[in-house]
Design a protein that fits this description.
Elements: H1 2-11, E1 14-20, E2 23-29, E3 32-35, E4 38-44, H2 48-55, E5 58-65, E6 68-79, H3 82-91, E7 106-120, E8 126-129
Antiparallel strand pairs: 1-2, 1-5, 3-4, 4-7, 5-6, 6-7, 7-8
Bound molecules: flavin mononucleotide (FMN).
Length: about 130
């Protein structure tokens, strides 16, 4: 999982796909954190992405860096604990202008039953689960 975190961090931007009814939706994301040995994303409850995850928590993330790409699929589990939100904001202080651990909007979610596949044009794919 640490390797997945580091790859996504290095990529800077990763693309989060959700399911909206029978349509895929994808958008750039960047906020990441490891808390209690789980990989977390952050969003706002007001966003469509949040509402899609609430209805269907199956997601996939894709990112590309230095000739390699990664796909991470799994389900996202919302963590409403203040300490989980605080940890995310401390790890991504640029979010503090828009979000706080005590607002009604900030949402953090961790990957459950995740499968990450690293791929490149030169090496066979490698999959890890966490
Ligand atoms: C580089 C970059 C990183 C972003 N990171 C996040 C993020 O970590 N969390 C988030 O909620 N929105 C992030 N955004 C904004 C979302 O992409 C944007 O709000 C998007 O419209 C949300 O998807 P939705 O419209 O389906 O709700 C980021 C945007 C950019 C350009």
């Amino acid at each position: 999982m640490q390797e997945v975190y580091e790859f996504l961090k290095k990529s800077g931007v990763f693309y989060l796909a959700t399911v909206d009814g029978d349509k895929p939706r994808v958008r750039p994301f960047g906020a990441l954190n490891i808390f209690e040995d789980k990989l977390y994303l952050q969003t706002g409850k007001v966003k469509a992405v949040s509402k899609q995850i609430e209805v269907n928590p199956n997601v996939e993330v894709c990112a590309f860096s230095e000739g390699k790409w990664i796909r991470v699929s799994g389900t996202l589990v919302r963590d409403d604990r203040r300490e989980a939100k605080e940890s995310m904001l401390d790890a991504n202080p640029e979010l503090k202008g828009m979000y706080s651990a005590d607002d009604d909007n900030t949402e953090v979610l961790y990957f459950d039953k995740a499968k990450a596949t690293f791929s490149s044009f030169t090496e066979p794919p490698r999959t890890i689960e966490f």
